[in-house]
Amino acid sequence: MLLCGYYGEHNLGDDALLQVLVSQIPSDWDLLVTARDSDAVHALVPGVSTVNRRSLSDTIQALNRVDALVLGGGSLLQDGTSFKSLVYYLVLLWIARFKRLSILLWGQGLGPLQGRFSHFLVKQTLSGVSAVSWRDPGSMGLAQRWELDIPMVMGPDPVWRHPSPPWMGGNRLILCWRPTPLLDIKGWSVLLDAVDRFSSSGCAEVIWLAFHADQDASLWNELRSRDLIPERLCRRSLQMQAESLQQVQSLFSESALVIAMRLHALILAATAGCPTAALSYDPKVKAAAQLADLPWVDLNDALNADQLNQQWQSAMTAQPDGSQIEQLKHDAQLHETMLVGELQKLSV
Hints:
Elements: E1 2-4, H1 12-24, E2 32-35, H2 38-44, E3 49-52, H3 56-62, E4 68-77, H4 83-98, E5 102-110, H5 116-126, E6 131-134, H6 137-145, E7 152-154, E8 172-176, H7 185-199, E9 205-210, H8 213-216, H9 219-225, H10 231-235, E10 237-241, H11 245-253, E11 257-260, H12 263-271, E12 276-280, H13 283-291, E13 296-298, H14 305-317, H15 323-331, H16 333-347
Parallel strand pairs: 1-2, 1-4, 2-3, 4-5, 5-6, 6-7, 8-9, 8-11, 9-10, 11-12, 12-13
């Protein structure tokens, strides 16, 4: 079986997706995983074979060695990153259809698709897959409007099923932020002023946790070079690279509050019972926060430092109620049910 996704790219969210996916596949299947950094994937899931995901020809050749193709987690069928990225996955799906492989889309998001041609290509391609589990109502709704005649189900993001250590509490504020064009200098200034004021009232340390090594690590230096980070906040800040899921979950379990832009940082913090608030740069972040009944702010809207400060104070001091999170964990099992059911058909 070929597991195809954004794996081995030093993105902790996709690492979590891969771990959950592999844990749900029966042990009698041999796994081949697309990866940029094969060592990183082997550290996550020992014993699997890998193929260079950045080589389309190598990945196409890998289809000759498998009985099934699984697109595992995330929003792979989208042209927001680039049309080239979309074509990569569509080519794999069409070749898998030609080879009559079973094709499963597990925990997928659909879109954004910005052009009519992208819509047409994805719609035609999806008509030939075996089954799909979508991770959000928007994706499911679009697929239903296309009237696709394939088995489809919808549940919360699969990472809600990732095991997490219990929250112990602490006095660290953790920021899982990413660069975003939604914030101009004024927007960043308001946001950083709110963090400065909030962290000065009881947080011993502010950890800037780069969840995606390639994209997030430069944010601190960029903000510093623009002289946007207040000096008081600089003195209590610590930059940190997210190196493993275990490291991240340990940090979350000992924090006072996690303020997350990254979707899977939000989910991993919330599953541990850690006080969590969202800054939504993408509808998927807002949707996850709403599902978990967590406070959120849409970065498309004008920011207000006082309101942010009040929201974070409320999030940090609220009496924890894990019932909503437990329900999400339960509902996210739907992805495993679909996957195992389809694989059992192939084993007969």
